[in-house]
Amino acid sequence: FLCPCLVYGAYVFLPFDAPLLPTISARLVYTLRCAAFATFPVVLGMIVSGISRLCSSALEPFGELHREVEIHRTYVSQSVHLFILYFFNMAVLATYLPQELLKLIPLLTGLFAISRLIFWMSYAIGRSFRAFGFSMTFLPLLAMLLWNLYGMFVLEPENLLA
Fold first, then answer.
1. Has residue 42 got a pLDDT over 90?
2. CA 118 to chain CA mean position, Å
3. Residue 3 falls inside a structural domain
4. What's the CA gap between 114 and 133, in Å, rounded?
5. How far is the C-alpha of 3 from the C-alpha of 120, rounded, in Å?
6. pLDDT at 58 over 70
7. How many domains does the chain have?
8. Name one GO cellular component term (predicted).
9. Does residue 113 register a pLDDT over 70?
10. CATH at 48
11. Which of 29-43, 47-61, 68-82, 90-104 is the least confident region?
12. How many other CB atoms are found less than 10 A from the CB of residue 68?
């Protein structure tokens, strides 16, 4: 319930508007630019994972990983998978949204980045605490997927393969 409230509050109270994007190609470029900011938690995780791997006292590079190294490696792996799902959903979403709702694209990008960082911190605390951060990432992805399917099959079924 927190994600829709955060997105709605940011949509109403943040003083910016999306630029005028009349064509689908302009919308896709805008989405690609916003998605570049969503890679920040993934790249940060890769850097920390590499540093923790270098600083671990493991003598065998292919041996058992320490808990700290395993946490960062798992976070990076899951974040890459979720980023791919996020990016493709955002690209499709940008083609179906009306111009006045394109402000949602950077807001959803920010929510993705913040929720991945929250997941990372909660995963480092303990595995039982990670559900909050994961749900803040996964539930908006699920909502985007449902909206995309609704847009493809109900709103514009004649343009499904066009």
1. yes
2. 12
3. no
4. 9
5. 17
6. no
7. 1
8. trans-Golgi network membrane
9. yes
10. 1.20.120
11. 47-61
12. 15
Residue 51 scores a pLDDT above 60:
yes
Q: Assess if residue 41 is contained within a domain.
A: yes
Please identify which residue in the block is written with the tokens 């630019």.
Answer: 33
**Predicted confidence (pLDDT) per residue in 73-86, tens digit:** 889 999 999 999 99
Environment class of residue 31 by beta-carbon count within 10 Å: exposed (0-12), middle (13-18) or buried (19+)? buried
Q: Which two tokens stand for residue 5?
A: 């409230």
Q: State which residues form the domain around 35.
A: 23-161
Residue 122, domain member (yes or no): yes
Tens-digit pLDDT profile for residues 91-110: 999 988 888 888 889 989 99
Q: How far apart are CA 107 and CA 134, in angstroms?
A: 18
Length of the chain: 162
Tokens of 10: 């940011």
Task: Scan for tokens 């006292």, then name that residue.
Answer: 57
CA–CA separation, 79 vs 72, rounded Å?
Answer: 10
